[in-house]
Amino acid sequence: MQSNSDPRIINPVELRVENISKSFGAFKALHDVSLTVSLGKVTALVGPNGAGKTTLFHVIGGNLAPDTGKVILNGTDVTGLPPYKIARRHVGRLFQDVRVFPALTVAENISVSFLHRSDYSLMTTIAWWRREARERDRRERAMKWLEFVGLADKADEPAGELSYGQQKLLALARIVALRPAILLLDEPTAALSPAMTKKMVALIKQLVAEQKLTTALIEHNMGVVRELADYIYFLHEGTVHTHGTQKEVLENPAVRELYMGLSGGMAI
Amino acid sequence: MNYLFHIGVMLGIYGMLALSANLLIGFGGLLTMAQAAFYGLGAYAYALLSLKLGLPFFVTLPAAILLCAFVGWLFGHAALRFRNEAFVLATIGFQMIVYVTLYNWTDLTRGPYGISGIPRPSFFGLGIESVPAYFLFTLVLFTAVLGFMHLVCTSPFALSLKALRDDEAAAQTLGICPKGQYIRAMVFSAAVAAVPGVCFASYITYIDPTSFTLAESIFIACILLVGGSGNIKGPMAGVAFMIILPEVLRFVGLPDAVAANLREIIYGVMLVVIVYTKPKGLAGAYAVK
Ligand SMILES: Nc1ncnc2c1ncn2[C@@H]1O[C@H](COP(=O)(O)OP(=O)(O)OP(=O)(O)O)[C@@H](O)[C@H]1O
Ligand SMILES: [Mg+2]
What we know:
The structure holds two protein chains of two kinds.
Chain A: E1 15-24, E2 27-37, E3 42-46, H1 53-61, E4 68-73, E5 76-77, H2 83-88, E6 91-94, H3 106-114, H4 122-126, H5 128-149, H6 164-176, E7 182-186, H7 194-211, E8 214-218, H8 222-228, E9 231-236, E10 239-244, H9 246-250, H10 253-260
Parallel strand pairs in A: 3-8, 3-9, 6-7, 7-8
Antiparallel strand pairs in A: 1-2, 1-4, 4-5, 9-10
Chain B: H1 2-27, H2 35-52, H3 57-79, H4 84-104, H5 106-109, E1 115-116, E2 122-123, E3 126-127, H6 131-153, H7 156-166, H8 168-173, H9 178-204, E4 206-207, H10 214-227, H11 233-249, H12 256-277
Antiparallel strand pairs in B: 1-4, 2-3
Helix pairs in contact in B: 1-6, 1-9, 1-10, 1-11, 2-3, 2-4, 2-9, 3-9, 6-9, 7-9, 10-11
The complex binds adenosine-5'-triphosphate (ATP) and magnesium ion (MG).
């Protein structure tokens, strides 16, 4: 793990969305959604398939412009900024579908996170003697994060050849290598084996604890939610149906009916 | 002997063209069909600057490079709002605009008559006149371009391009601005394509618009499809194959009556077989989509 002297570590950031609505044609994917992802806490978003959870992340991450409403980061309105600008504001987004760079090596996948605008100047591009030191530095830092997720021995393999679970770990490592203040995790354990799920949960727990990351977590696995979530929002058909502590939401009869009933009696 | 040196010059020119297109096609994943437009702009810039203003080579070459870089920058802003098929169409449109302009702006370019009497480069009063000398000169230019592209292709900039190519949305979540990086790639690619343009114009000493057509752009893209892209080896293999194979086929003793057609058929079949069986080309690192 890196020390806290890293200049990119910034103060914890709070994330709020206010009155977000988003329609696809006549279909209202989100309707007047407001929620707060509190400082240094894990806030879970749960709800049936199609509830609009990923759409909300797309809005926060700048992939989709909302029809109405605001996304507020640390008191600043960031609605409608493109995804790369949201990322530069220390928001780390993990996509629901794993999206590693398949042709790049595992280590290069992480190195991309360390690229800075100054690395692209014409001078840096052609003055090789100047870039070697930075390249070594990127590689070393990448290796640290690969060790963190247990992929160091795969560093020089193409990322596309990793197993699905390993790709998810790599995607997580790539995001946290950015030193984000906020994590948006969209189903980090979906389709993982029980062993991999355990590992993923442990890593997220460690990150949140050590780096005080403000985290929004979309998750269908209630075991994972119980283990990680400090606060829960239950989304249903594009609106916030219920929110509160684990007990308040997960033991709410209406939620059980709508969610667990629908998903075939998932054990909670 | 001059024949071999001539092939050598052509290898150098197409080698530079393939390397310039490689940055967009193989690293950026942007299938450009406008490389011949920049090639032509470079050639015309050299021809006009040296004929009309009598400027020496060491001025005209950088001027042609800067002109192409600038036009690439302008065109990049327009075309890089698009991706995939729409981007390909935008580049085809640009290629057509440049061709039609070269063809019809007769006051400047003499249109279909072309420009003749383009001077060969000369340094300190020493002209590069013979074909072997010109081959050496091309080799120098090619080596410079190869070295430059090697640096670009191993740079952090190229890493960001490959990330965008593999997954643009994911690259954005890591803070990479797609438009900025793609425009940079377009500028580099256009600037480098000016060099073979200058080389061609000063070698043949005559240019007309028919050397810079859409068909030429497609040929350049084919070099990368066959040889491969996304690294340096691929484009080099492609150029060797696409330029040398037709020459070799001249000597395989086909019956005269059908030789020309048969050569075309063999050439075509080999291209199809390679593209079909090797998605990454002969030596490439990226399968063009
Ligand atoms: N680009 C789009 N165009 C049209 N409809 C869309 C689009 N994106 C999402 N939707 C629809 O919006 C609804 C919400 O989708 P979303 O992906 O946000 O659900 P989710 O809560 O993340 O579900 P899951 O748990 O299955 O991932 C779905 O019915 C989906 O079909
Ligand atoms: Mg989803």
